[in-house]
Amino acid sequence: MTAPRPYGIFAAFAGPDALLAAVRDLRAQGYSDLQAHTAYPVDELDSALGLRPSPIGWLILLGALLGAVAAYALPVYSTMVAYPINVGGRPLHAWPPFALLAFEGGVLGGTLAAFLGFLVLCRLPAYHHPAFDFTAVDFAAEDCFVVVIRGSDPQYDAQALTRALTEAKAQDIAEVGP
């Protein structure tokens, strides 16, 4: 039986410029399964990591549309199919009050899709993450700039990565277990 691969190699850097330079260098060397942890957003980091845009906007749109359709369909069904009663000569399909309900249903559907989509896309709740085992950096600090080369990267080689990260002026390098 083979030993499980480690989660990856964590390397802490002094600032965002050093982190960006290291990420660009690692991508140029062919590493593709990279992550970065920073205390605040760093411009150009997403493009340097090669990240795709988040699908959360499309999930919110889908949730809003489904919520609006469901909220509109409920009174239409109840007044036109289930209980078609002529009240005061109004038409069975009185759309103005139904449109208000559809708007509210769309807001509710979009909000629920945003919340649930966020949880799913961020893989939450996560009770433990291997990043918590990297003790060299306090992840709540203002000077937290960490790059992670995951063990699932096809080119993962701990010794070569340690050399490359040392050349990139990493302050601390650690291989974190599975």
UniProtKB/TrEMBL annotation:
A Pfam match: ActD
Segments passing through the bilayer: 56-78, 98-121
Keywords, ordered alphabetically: Membrane, Transmembrane, Transmembrane helix
InterPro entries noted in UniProt: ActD
Signal peptide span: none
PANTHER family assigned to the protein according to its UniProt record, in alphabetical order: LIPOPROTEIN-RELATED, QUINOL:CYTOCHROME C OXIDOREDUCTASE MEMBRANE PROTEIN
Name this polypeptide is given: DUF3341 domain-containing protein
Source organism (scientific name): Paracoccus jeotgali
Lineage, uppermost ranks: Bacteria, Pseudomonadati, Pseudomonadota, Alphaproteobacteria, Rhodobacterales
